[in-house]
């Protein structure tokens, strides 16, 4: 994967084919991956796995959308700072589900920052940051005053449908608005052998609205509200396979996120670009059979300003986040409650020293505080510095690198574990130390790249293995490896090949999903291929492949046994047609897992079924072939 790989944004064909752009967004900081809504439309993305397909640094584990977990270079969700329009999605509701639910139809773009990064990444971004950004009316309107998109889609594997309606328009010279409603209804999926994956059925509804006011003098205000609700008959542990220890039961999910944002780009001034937002997120999981609920409420603010001073571009400000996890019987008088908050201050400077040298340096100071259900109070504060560079040796050859730290104090625990959870009263904060180096060489339409990364998270917090309810400092978690990249960006053909070799260990033991949960996983060497071709001005086709090597003889201390993780190669194809005779009409055909490959992805719970006493401990296999067809009409 590239440390600095940018495509020609001025190419006329660039807008009409799938792209995954990886670029060094902040000089000297780790690689980012950027996906836009055209990418998601061509994939016909239906869940997190679809969103990140073809992005080598990101692995999504699990077949059940509600149970999918995100890993960045083998480090899990518990090490990441994940946000939607700046609203942090923190806290854990249920350890057998994911902490993030998002509807791809809603998204304008997704950015992944790999590894501890710059001071603006937010507090506690030990393994990186994932930033989901939703659509705004100006993204859709262009020169029009009003528009709408009606879309319907069919999924063959689950015999499912997804229908959506989006309307957007200018209310007057100042205000514009966008609103979306998405409804999907899908039956149980099947694996490649034709066996039904019980508990993968779902009914989901999304309501989203955003109001934007663009005032004179560079002032801009936006208010957005999103509600995503899902229900279905899920396995008690949705991330595990079906078995006697994992019965089928109803499960309900509901997430709401509200964000108020203010921007001021003062005309004629290089000193003022103010960006402020306040947000609130509420994510609840409810299990009707025992009337148990787990709810995470998060609220906070982000305030920053950017000033350009000579060769410096300095961003500085403050952020704050408050989390509350409540769990127990719905409507009951007694519930378990834990709280945590963090107040941060940050400054980041991008400084052009010469025409060929750019430096990036900054720091943030965070003050963490948490109170667990036993009344134990945990406090920690400290600085997280960073330093990076980009050096153009020649016009075509670039070196880049950086060092960054990130601090994270004790936070709230999993709501479904609170009734039995205990914390080591001497819990210490975690600190990540991340080193990145990269080189890029451009030859005409070709780009060659290589990178090296080394991340250590000191005093990593987790359960005493295997799956106890006691949280302690487990030791040092390390992730290191290298990446290679090859990109061709021609007039009609775009092809990107990315290879990643990375390992994740804690105290010398390879991470496994079963033993270490949210902290991370271990994967074989991974090759991602993303190729698209503009057949005509109205037709483009694409191929996305993921090839993962075997990972054998992984020793698991808690089970005193070794396991194997077989490799796999998965191929997706798509074709997109934009009608010429009917303005605004488009058709997309996507074939997921086109060769009907039977496999267990390396982000899922590993197969322990051959080990005595571990019967039933295995993740769900991936879905088999899925033919997706969608028809959209924009007017």
UniProtKB/TrEMBL annotation:
Main localization category: membrane
Similarity annotation: Belongs to the TonB-dependent receptor family.
Alphabetical list of SUPFAM superfamilies matching this protein: Porins
Membrane topology: Multi-pass membrane protein
Name of the protein: TonB-dependent receptor domain-containing protein
TonB-dependent receptor-like beta-barrel domain location: 216-593
Domain TonB-dependent receptor plug: 36-129
Record keywords: Cell outer membrane, Membrane, Receptor, TonB box, Transmembrane, Transmembrane beta strand, Transport
Localization (cell): Cell outer membrane
Pfam families: Plug (PF07715), TonB_dep_Rec_b-barrel (PF00593)
């Amino acid at each position: 994967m590239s440390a600095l790989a940018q495509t020609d944004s001025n190419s006329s064909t660039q807008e009409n084919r799938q792209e995954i752009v990886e670029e060094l967004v902040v000089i000297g900081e780790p690689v980012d991956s950027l996906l836009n809504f055209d990418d998601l439309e061509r994939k016909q993305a239906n869940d997190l796995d679809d969103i990140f397909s073809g992005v080598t640094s990101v692995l999504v584990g699990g077949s059940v959308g509600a149970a999918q977990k995100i890993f960045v270079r083998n480090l899990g969700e518990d090490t990441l700072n994940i946000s939607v329009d700046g609203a942090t999605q923190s806290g854990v509701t249920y350890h057998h589900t994911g902490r993030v639910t998002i509807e791809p139809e809603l998204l304008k773009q997704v950015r992944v920052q790999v590894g501890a990064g710059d001071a603006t990444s937010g507090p506690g971004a030990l393994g990186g940051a994932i930033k989901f950004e939703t659509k705004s009316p100006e993204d859709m309107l262009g020169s029009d005053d009003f528009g709408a998109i009606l879309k319907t889609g069919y999924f063959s594997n689950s015999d499912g449908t997804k229908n959506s309606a989006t309307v957007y328009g200018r209310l007057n010279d100042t205000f514009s608005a966008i609103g979306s409603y998405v409804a999907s209804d899908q039956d149980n999926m099947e694996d490649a052998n034709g066996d039904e994956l019980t508990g993968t059925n779902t009914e989901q509804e999304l309501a989203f609205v955003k109001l934007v006011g663009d005032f004179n003098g560079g002032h801009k205000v936006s208010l957005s509200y999103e509600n995503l609700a899902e229900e279905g008959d899920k396995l008690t542990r949705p991330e595990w396979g079906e078995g006697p220890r994992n019965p089928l039961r109803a499960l309900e999910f509901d997430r709401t996120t509200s964000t108020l944002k203010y921007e001021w780009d003062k005309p004629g001034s290089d000193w003022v670009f103010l960006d402020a937002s306040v947000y609130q997120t509420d994510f609840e999981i409810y299990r009707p059979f025992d009337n148990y609920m787990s709810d995470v409420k998060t609220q906070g603010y982000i305030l920053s300003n950017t000033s350009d001073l000579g060769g410096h571009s300095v961003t500085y400000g403050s952020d704050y986040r408050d989390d509350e996890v409540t769990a127990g019987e719905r409507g009951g008088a007694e519930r378990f409650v834990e709280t945590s908050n963090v107040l941060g201050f940050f400054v980041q400077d991008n400084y052009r020293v010469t025409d060929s040298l750019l430096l990036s340096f900054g720091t943030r100071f965070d003050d963490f505080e948490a109170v667990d259900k036993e009344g134990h109070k945990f406090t920690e504060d400290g600085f997280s510095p960073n330093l990076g560079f980009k050096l153009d040796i020649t016009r075509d050859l670039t070196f880049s690198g950086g060092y960054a730290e990130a601090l994270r104090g004790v936070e709230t625990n999993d709501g479904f574990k609170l009734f039995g959870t205990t914390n080591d009263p001497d819990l210490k904060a975690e600190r990540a130390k991340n080193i990145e180096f990269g080189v890029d060489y451009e030859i005409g339409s070709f780009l060659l790249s290589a990178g090296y990364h080394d991340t250590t998270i000191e005093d990593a917090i987790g359960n005493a293995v295997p799956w106890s309810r006691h949280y302690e400092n487990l030791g040092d978690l390390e992730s290191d490896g290298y990446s290679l990249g090859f990109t061709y960006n021609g007039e009609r053909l775009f092809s990107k090949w990315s290879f990643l070799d990375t390992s994740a260990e804690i105290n010398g033991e390879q991470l496994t999903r079963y033993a270490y949960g949210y902290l991370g996983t271990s994967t074989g060497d991974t090759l991602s291929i993303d190729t698209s071709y503009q057949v005509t001005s109205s037709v483009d086709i694409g191929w996305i492949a993921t090839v993962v090597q075997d990972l054998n003889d992984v020793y698991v201390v808690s089970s005193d046994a070794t396991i194997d993780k077989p490799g796999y190669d998965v191929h997706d194809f798509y074709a997109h047609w934009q009608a010429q005779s009917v303005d605004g009409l488009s058709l997309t055909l996507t074939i997921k897992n086109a060769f009907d490959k039977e496999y267990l992805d390396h982000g899922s719970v590993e197969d322990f079924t051959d080990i005595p006493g571990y019967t039933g401990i295995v993740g769900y296999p991936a879905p088999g072939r899925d033919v997706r067809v969608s028809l959209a009409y924009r007017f």
